[in-house]
């Protein structure tokens, strides 16, 4: 099959979802109000709570959630065939991810910018809240520790990406000053920023930077991991307008330009998808497609981490409640578009089926490498781009989005530390909270692996925990809707599906870890499984109480009517 068909059908479905389905959800289910005072105004402190232009905020939200996972997940999942991956990414984006991300943002805005963990206490109960925070903390630990390893591996394997990756920080700092301090309009900083970013890619392609084999006694990969954690710690302490917002915004523009270039290459090259639609001869050791497909492709279809970002940082910057549809739902669409590109690169970027099978000879093969190499081929065939330049551009894209997810993730983990301390009866400041978050992540990365590779130890549980957290977030949103007397069907359907798939996957992985005698993952699996079942039970009880109380209430929530 020609890849153009896949491209047009996928983009068309997501566009229709945003134009029609998100509008229905905004007007009939969440019922957005343009005059509702958002936390960015009522709690403004110009550090975390900052009213923000919706396009800038969309850039922050989208690039914070668009890390390595929407590339890695689909790039691994096509081993079962391109059709299951394509269907889950497309339908999951429209009916699951968009409603989830949008809903988490709306619920947080309606509750003074509180995170989903704290909201679970208000709407599910104290026990549910405590267990919810455990799941959130473990997920953020996985994101921060594992993404540092993924980025470090790419910086080592693609040294031409080093200059554009670190140069993007300087570009973001300048844009932040231009927009917020000198009040320059958005247009010219945007155009100039994208031009400089791509100029840095050209420079980096000509001047690769390679760290020495030993840096203060550490390997090159370990040194990159330390530098990445130091950067993330500093970035999480700065006011969001200084670095986080402008970095995410300009990266969002860069991604859309990059996706446009990649999609143009597909249209011009008109490549054939060589991978099978349904792979009947998967390699030995490949797990069953159900439930693993739905947790392997996490962020590309729906992700609990998105709810953490939406309620952790994005809700504190939303200028108008009606902006939530564009920022939340369209942010999920952007993620789906990135996953669609990954599927095409990893199935049409090979000359023959034999070449594809050589890469996908075992489960877990492919990943970012397949995306970079396959996309490089498409760029050469469609646009005549030099071989190394395409690899540099795609590797830079992958690193930038993983890095923005990492610095946002560390800020969110600091929030969780502070919230947990508050529940315990004492106060933890911003600096101390950041130090604690950094210490835990680095302890995992270097304690479980001498070269920093320990961050990947818990990667097998990442996708499952991510989807499970999305289900629990949908449970909180459903309770809110039920209390307000609104139809919860549009959140309950994805909630039930995700909960079943995630619990099924946890049980399957439990047997695998036991067989491997991997006691760390076994213990974490048990903790997550018990917490998920307990929170689900508490959520079910909260829904019943909310349904019974809805008839006696006037549909108000936090001062809202209707």
UniProtKB/TrEMBL annotation:
<feature type="transmembrane region" description="Helical">
    <location>
        <begin position="256"/>
        <end position="278"/>
    </location>
</feature>
<dbReference type="InterPro" id="IPR003706">
    <property type="entry name" value="CstA_N"/>
</dbReference>
<feature type="transmembrane region" description="Helical">
    <location>
        <begin position="130"/>
        <end position="156"/>
    </location>
</feature>
<feature type="transmembrane region" description="Helical">
    <location>
        <begin position="519"/>
        <end position="537"/>
    </location>
</feature>
<dbReference type="InterPro" id="IPR051605">
    <property type="entry name" value="CstA"/>
</dbReference>
<protein>
    <submittedName>
        <fullName>Carbon starvation protein A</fullName>
    </submittedName>
</protein>
<feature type="transmembrane region" description="Helical">
    <location>
        <begin position="290"/>
        <end position="314"/>
    </location>
</feature>
<feature type="transmembrane region" description="Helical">
    <location>
        <begin position="326"/>
        <end position="351"/>
    </location>
</feature>
<keyword id="KW-1003">Cell membrane</keyword>
<feature type="transmembrane region" description="Helical">
    <location>
        <begin position="389"/>
        <end position="412"/>
    </location>
</feature>
<comment type="similarity">
    <text>Belongs to the peptide transporter carbon starvation (CstA) (TC 2.A.114) family.</text>
</comment>
<feature type="domain" description="CstA N-terminal">
    <location>
        <begin position="365"/>
        <end position="505"/>
    </location>
</feature>
<keyword id="KW-0812">Transmembrane</keyword>
<feature type="transmembrane region" description="Helical">
    <location>
        <begin position="424"/>
        <end position="446"/>
    </location>
</feature>
<feature type="transmembrane region" description="Helical">
    <location>
        <begin position="162"/>
        <end position="180"/>
    </location>
</feature>
<feature type="transmembrane region" description="Helical">
    <location>
        <begin position="187"/>
        <end position="210"/>
    </location>
</feature>
<feature type="transmembrane region" description="Helical">
    <location>
        <begin position="85"/>
        <end position="109"/>
    </location>
</feature>
<keyword id="KW-0472">Membrane</keyword>
<feature type="transmembrane region" description="Helical">
    <location>
        <begin position="222"/>
        <end position="244"/>
    </location>
</feature>
<dbReference type="Pfam" id="PF02554">
    <property type="entry name" value="CstA"/>
</dbReference>
<feature type="transmembrane region" description="Helical">
    <location>
        <begin position="458"/>
        <end position="482"/>
    </location>
</feature>
<keyword id="KW-1133">Transmembrane helix</keyword>
<feature type="transmembrane region" description="Helical">
    <location>
        <begin position="489"/>
        <end position="507"/>
    </location>
</feature>
<feature type="domain" description="CstA N-terminal">
    <location>
        <begin position="2"/>
        <end position="347"/>
    </location>
</feature>
């Amino acid at each position: 099959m020609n890849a153009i068909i896949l491209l047009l059908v996928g983009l068309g479905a997501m566009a229709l979802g945003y134009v029609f389905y998100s509008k229905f959800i905004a007007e009939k289910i969440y019922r957005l109000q343009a005059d509702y005072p958002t936390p960015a105004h009522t709690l403004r402190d110009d550090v975390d709570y900052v009213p923000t232009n919706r396009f800038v905020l969309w850039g922050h939200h989208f690039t914070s959630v668009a890390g390595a996972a929407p590339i890695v997940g689909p790039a691994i999942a096509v081993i079962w065939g391109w059709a299951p991956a394509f269907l889950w990414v497309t339908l999951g984006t429209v009916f699951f991810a968009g409603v989830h991300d949008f809903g988490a943002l709306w619920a947080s805005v309606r509750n003074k910018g509180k995170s989903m963990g704290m909201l679970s206490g208000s709407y599910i109960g104290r026990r549910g809240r405590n267990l919810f925070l455990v799941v959130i903390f473990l997920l953020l630990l996985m994101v921060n520790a594992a993404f540092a390893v993924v980025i470090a591996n790419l910086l080592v394997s693609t040294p031409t990406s080093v200059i554009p990756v670190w140069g993007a920080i300087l570009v973001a700092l300048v844009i932040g000053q231009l927009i917020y301090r000198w009040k320059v309009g958005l247009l010219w900083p945007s155009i100039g920023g994208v031009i400089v970013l791509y100029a840095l890619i050209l420079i980096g392609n000509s001047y690769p930077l390679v760290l020495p084999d030993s840096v203060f006694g550490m390997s090159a990969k370990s040194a990159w991991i330390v530098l990445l954690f130091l950067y993330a710690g500093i970035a999480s302490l700065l006011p969001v307008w200084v670095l986080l917002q402008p970095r995410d915004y300009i990266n969002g523009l860069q991604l859309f330009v990059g996706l446009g270039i990649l999609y143009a290459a597909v249209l011009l090259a008109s490549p054939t998808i060589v991978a099978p639609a349904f792979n009947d001869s998967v390699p030995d050791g490949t797990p069953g497609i159900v439930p693993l497909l739905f947790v392997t492709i996490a962020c590309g279809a729906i992700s609990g981490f998105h709810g953490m970002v939406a309620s952790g940082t994005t809700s504190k910057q939303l200028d108008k409640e009606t902006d939530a549809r564009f920022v939340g739902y369209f942010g999920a669409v952007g993620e789906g578009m990135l996953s669609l590109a990954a599927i095409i690169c990893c199935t049409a970027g090979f000359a023959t089926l034999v070449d594809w099978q050589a890469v996908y000879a075992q489960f877990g093969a492919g990943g970012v490498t397949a995306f970079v190499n396959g996309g490089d081929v498409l760029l050469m065939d469609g646009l005549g781009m030099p071989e190394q330049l395409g690899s540099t551009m795609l590797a830079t894209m992958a690193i930038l989005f993983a890095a923005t997810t990492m610095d946002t993730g560390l800020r969110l983990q600091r929030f969780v530390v502070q919230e947990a301390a508050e529940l315990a009866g004492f106060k933890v400041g911003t600096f101390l909270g950041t130090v604690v978050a950094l210490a835990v992540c680095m302890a995992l990365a270097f304690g479980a692996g001498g070269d920093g590779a320990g961050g990947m130890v818990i990667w097998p549980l990442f996708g499952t925990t991510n989807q499970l957290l999305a289900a629990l977030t949908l449970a909180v949103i459903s309770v809110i809707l039920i209390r307000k007397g609104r139809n919860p069907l549009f959140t309950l359907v994805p909630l039930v599906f995700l909960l079943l798939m995630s619990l099924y996957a946890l049980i399957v992985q439990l047997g695998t870890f036991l067989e491997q005698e991997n006691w760390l993952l076994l213990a974490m699996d048990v903790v997550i499984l018990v917490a998920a079942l307990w929170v689900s039970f508490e959520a079910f009880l909260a829904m019943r109480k909310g349904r019974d109380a809805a008839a006696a209430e006037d549909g108000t929530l936090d001062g809202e009517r209707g």
